[in-house]
Amino acid sequence: MFKVQLSTVTASIGLAAFATLLLSPPASADTITIPTSSFDSTSSLEQYWNYNYPWGDTHNGAARMSSDHVSASGGVLTLTAVPASDSDSDIHYHSGTIYAKEQVNVDGTDAVGYQVEGEFIAPTTKGTWPAFWLNAASGWPPESDIAEWKGERTDQIWFNTFNTSSQVASKVVTWPDDGNYHAVKGVLRTIPGNSADLSIEYYLDGTLQATHTAAGYVGKALNLIIDLQMEGSSGSPGPTGTTTFKIRNVQMTKLTS
């Protein structure tokens, strides 16, 4: 059977062309760099994620992060914030944050884009500040907030793109705060004829909410962060009890076409 097929192929395209076909590498394909299974267990979590922020255990809010407030089981990541009992006047909560070991870097050659997505049950009360975001691995900006919830204005979600500290594109829409999981997605892609900037599309439950131009983002490495920060930009005082942020089906895909 193989000899018949081989003869047929070589007769139609020529022996030299057939040899080239055999030796050519397969066409590139999109690559899942973080699978949805990364929250199946603690060991799965630690295979793909680090604890805290890339720079430490605090950031622009009133919570100090530790692995004690991070759990992963059955495909669900849970970040938990509890009021602090210590005497540090700047820290009012102990909470949890993780960041991906795989960075996002749209260089225009190996990767022409990235798709980052997940499903969330996010707290939106005053003083709660959960987020799913990309932050510059070196310097700042760039920053892309694929989802940011700030309890100063409840039942809303922010999609933000920081080009500079003062040049920020934002879209604020209603968050369906019904206690169910809802899907958020950010798609970063190169722009034809533009070697410096990216396009970022922001989605909520499969519906496009905003498209921003991310100036100078090509070739800039970004860390994917999931955190439950407290107070800060979300107002104060925050909750007096335990706050939880639940996340599932997070996936990062490197786009090559």
Automatic annotation (TrEMBL):
SUPFAM superfamilies: Concanavalin A-like lectins/glucanases (SSF49899)
GO biological process: carbohydrate metabolic process
Coiled-coil annotated spans: none
Pfam family of the protein (one): Glyco_hydro_16
Keyword Magnesium tagged: no
Signal peptide: 1-29
Record-given protein name: GH16 domain-containing protein
